Amino acid sequence: MTTIAGGTDTLTRDALTVLQPGFPGTTAPDWLLRRLGEGLASVGLFGRNITSPEQLAALTAQLRAERDDVLVAIDEEGGDVTRLDVRTGSSFPGNHALGAVDDVTLTLEVAAELGRRLAACGVNLNWAPSADVNSNPSNPVIGVRSFGADPALVARHTAAYVTGLQSAGVAACTKHFPGHGDTSVDSHHALPRIDADPAVLAERELAPFRAAIAAGTRAVMSAHILVPALDPDRPATLSRRILTDLLRGELGYRGLIVTDGMEMQAIAGTYGIERGSVLAVAAGADAICVGGGLADDETVRRLRDALVSAVRTGELPEERLADAAERVRALARWTAAASPGDGVGGRPDVGLVAARRALRPTGAERFTPLTEPPYVAALTPVANFAVGDETPWGVAAELSRRLPGTRTGSFAGEDAATAASAVLRAAGEHRIVAVVRDEHRHPWMTQALDTLLTARPDTVVVEMGLPQAPSRGALHIATHGAAHVCGRAAAEFLTGQ
């Protein structure tokens, strides 16, 4: 083996190069900086790493002082899945709100503004957009992260999002290939399966990815899902048929292929992360994302050693690992050369503008704006892992700003009668604003609303998830997402502003 800078042989260096680990804390730990010197080329950031734009910029500068071409990735979809605004809620509506407006210029402008904010903080790879077609409204992990259920709509907005984000010099990573929208299982917890025939997959799931590739997406993220029509034996992340034959061969994609988090149970609970990482690279993946839950030097060492061992035993061709590492370096070169100044003109308020346009009120003609402080009852589901439970949502904070004295409570669980009774007691004579998220997936919410509306027909309902349940209440507002700006837009409407 040839020994190169840092005393690390080429094989070991390539094995480090294909890893995208996370780490704890708001400054880079010593082990991470050391690994960057040894060949690690990417890091992944999560909410735990961010407290402010200034702190994030200092963190990315610290990383670049060790390796100036490092890829700094983040899971910043906007909307419900935010890391930049993890403690306040996003300044941008998510995909479903943009799909509801269906203005591709607006989607491009939102993505460009989000990209500018990421670039200003030193982030150059965004694990977004989600190109999943939300064909199963009961999907527990996609939902409002999707532009919608129509493949053509999802395709045109995916392309616009990719174009806007990359105009700011931030590489887009379109996900979750070959499409996670028709699942009923969250791959954070188990291995989902999609039993659609090849013709349906080609017309529905693959259409947005074709559009993303045509738009020049610099990265694509694989899904931990089993699609028997494409490969009956292995999930997409580990499938050569899906990553190499389909994505590279049939669809002609030439950019970086990134795995979804390898610590997710769909892989970790079935293959283990070391074995899964070897199989993923052998199948055609170029970068191994790990760090949403596992974020330490021991994990990096284990994965590096697993890849090196697989090459030495002949299980993983050395040229495949070298090709993967070169694709990582190629993306790093693109981000270094990209000029944020090439993007469209800045619109700092575009997120709020989009959220306002996405509002869909029913019963507005009979509604008199609130002038007295209401009682806001948040009927709260368990947040999925991608969204997390750190990020606030709802309308209470924004209503409190406009109507001081507004009170609120959060009610969760399966006991609808108990929740409804507690809301009625807490509300007293105050007008009730009931805030829900994906009512159609939670029967207890429906039952609780039935009780509230029977007792208090003037109750206002704000749906901040998928608006699949029938509209009801004195006023029903669909925000198409739970971003902070969606809550603000709803509060403005409720108070006549």
Explain the layout of strands and helices.
Blueprint: E1 3-4, E2 8-9, H1 10-17, E3 19-21, H2 30-38, E4 42-45, H3 53-66, E5 71-74, H4 95-101, H5 104-120, E6 125-126, H6 151-167, E7 171-177, H7 198-203, H8 207-214, E8 219-222, H9 240-250, E9 256-258, H10 265-268, H11 273-283, E10 288-290, H12 297-312, H13 318-337, H14 350-358, E11 360-362, E12 375-379, H15 396-402, E13 407-411, H16 416-427, E14 432-436, H17 443-455, E15 460-463, E16 475-478, H18 484-494
Parallel strand pairs: 3-10, 4-5, 5-6, 6-7, 7-8, 8-9, 12-13, 12-14, 14-15, 15-16
Antiparallel strand pairs: 1-2, 11-16
Number of helices: 18
Report the strand count.
16
Strand content: 5-15%
Shape: globular
Outline the structure in words.
Helices cover 40% and strands 12% of the residues. Strand 1 (3-4) and strand 2 (8-9) form a beta hairpin. It has helices spanning 10-17, 30-38, 53-66, 95-101, 104-120, 151-167, 198-203, 207-214, 240-250, 265-268, 273-283, 297-312, 318-337, 350-358, 396-402, 416-427, 443-455, 484-494, and strands spanning 3-4, 8-9, 19-21, 42-45, 71-74, 125-126, 171-177, 219-222, 256-258, 288-290, 360-362, 375-379, 407-411, 432-436, 460-463, 475-478. Helix 1 packs across helix 12, helix 6 (151-167) packs parallel to helix 8 and helix 15 packs across helix 18. The protein has 497 residues and is an alpha/beta fold.
